[in-house]
Hints:
Elements: H1 5-19, E1 24-27, E2 63-66, E3 71-76, E4 84-91, E5 103-109, E6 132-134, E7 143-153, E8 161-170, H2 181-198, E9 213-214, E10 221-222, H3 226-229, E11 233-235, E12 241-242, E13 245-246, E14 338-341, E15 348-350, E16 356-359, E17 365-370, E18 375-378, E19 383-386
Parallel strand pairs: 2-8, 5-11, 10-12
Antiparallel strand pairs: 1-3, 3-6, 4-5, 4-7, 7-8, 9-13, 14-17, 15-16, 16-17, 18-19
Amino acid sequence: MHYSLIQLSALVAxxxxxxxxxxxxxxxxxxxxxxxxxxxxxxxxxxxPCKQRENVYKVTKNNVMPIGQPQTLxxxxxxxxxxxxxxxxxxxDKQPTKDSVWKVIESIEGGCPSTAPGNLGDDPNGxxxxxxxxxxxxxxxxxxxxxxxxWFNKIGNREMYMNCAPVTVTGASGKTKxxxxxxxxxxxxxxxxxxxxMSSLPNMFVANIGNGCSTAESGTTLAIPQQNLGTNxxxxxxxxxxxxxxxxxxxxxxxAKEAAPPSEPEAPVAAPAAxxxxxxxxxxxxxxxxxxxxxxxxxxxSEQPFAPLPPVSVVPVAPSPSADVAPAPAPPVPEGxxxxxxxxxxxxxxxxxxxxxxxxxxxxRVMFAPAPLGTKCDPTLGVLVQANASGRLLKA
Length: 396
């Protein structure tokens, strides 16, 4: 069959459009949304982070996010590659580099950005993907950040997608005024405490960009390693989760650097108080740990600006009739964080009053992160659901 020059040009244009027909983040509004493309990061990582390009950090719209209030993650495009796993992360850098430190605030395992078995279609401007809710945790200080959405596709080449957006985190009420010097001093102390608590958030998972770590073969859905997962986790769909391969242990962040505090908008208010003390939950029935969860590994660098939580070491002490031996002290827990005991590593658990959610770690301990405003943890599902003003769960 012979083609005219015009026909060949049309075929090439069609092939290019399909090659570029992946998805991009629609909300939050990304940097440079008028010239962003939907391609994955380059396999050698040369455009990491945020798909480096001309005017990569051009602000189209600043996204204002009050602490604890529900936010929406949505997309444009229909080439969803069978879904996969995603994360939402923050860095204090307004123009991130390879050395920026990213802290995870939400992980979505499976069904992201869609549970469709293949692609939804071939319209690069189409819709139909899933939308996901997330919230800024209360331990995040108010100020300016860059938010990243990262995606590891289920079907196709082993790739990492990444879009970034400018974000201003405000107090829970969105107000930005203070009246007295005493209030200003108190607010500064509150920001310092929450910044310290934020250091317990895990580093963003990075793979498929020449860093020695890769997601498993095409057709598998990523199980995000435990050390990068965090406590705010959504499990979507019924795919079996498969851990990555290669050198993926420890911190997957870029080399550590001294992190600057976020540049703060005018006079934000303090974050909402943590929920009241409650007794530790009873351990759930013992089950086999999921093969998709990797054991927690702490970063080894002493210069890491956001140090992860120390591992729990339980040391049995035998009683002695001849001497009093004190038990080993428990590692410190960030201020305002509730804890409990558990025996199923990787399982999501609810705080007894439903006001917090956490994941059982390898040492049999769970740390509960406060549930975002307007949500409550459903103890039967181990997930956050919407709640009405009286705190009752809203069932679908």
